[in-house]
Amino acid sequence: MSNRRPLVGGNWKMNGDLAGCVELTEDVVAALSQTDVLDHVDVSIHPPFPYIQAVGHALKHHAVDLGAQDCSPKLEGAYTGQTSPLMLADLGTLSVLVGHSERRHGLEESNGLIGQKLHAASEAGLIPILCVGETKEERDGGNAHDVVAKQVREGLDGLDSTAAGVISIAYEPVWAIGTGETATSEDVQEAHQMVRSVVGSMYDVELAEAVRIIYGGSVKAANAAELFACPDVDGGLIGGASLDARTFAAICLAARETVVA
Ligand code: PGA
Predict the structure, then answer these.
(1) Low-confidence residues of the chain, pLDDT below 70?
(2) Phi/psi of residue 147, each to 5°?
């Protein structure tokens, strides 16, 4: 049993409208407030950018954190269409995903760019959640570990240990995202252990032991408990299943149950 406090993030991706996102926020808060989950688990929701302020407003006075799905690698200036991590912090955002596979593969974001985003987020005082994971081809070719280790190394490159001590990492095998296919708990544990050892080799064992590594990829209420029970799995990043408040709350409850009273 580790001392790491579990983290469960709801990544809403590009779904919903203004009224629907506010309603979902209220429903998540209501479902969680009937439990003691928030005493034991950090829960964040990551709405689409245009609705982030409204969702933040709905979260005021509640212990659920506001997260973003992405940020600019720059803090300010002539960067049309981008969103500065400083602006996100200004709106009360606590954490931000960087390097989600739908941006790595859909928008060709490189490890270098993701590293710059992570630095900018950290400089702005946000908690970066670095997303890593291999494609099916990379896995089938036996390269999963090398690919993921490289994503971790290049994502954290140049980050000092104070900043690195604050980040979280989400291991999300690309082939498991939104497909209904989940990695086995043995595979997930092995990958998380490997990610933790890469962090240890870049910094030290103590820091690696403190960093939260969460799993993402078709997590559902039915498989969350088994995945979260793995010793190096510190919670989850939830896509599709976070769009239903009761299901998301059940997943958060599974994370809570890993914490011994
Ligand atoms: P999924 O998405 O739960 O729908 O597979 C996870 C993610 O992309 O973070």
Answers:
(1) 1, 261
(2) -65, -50
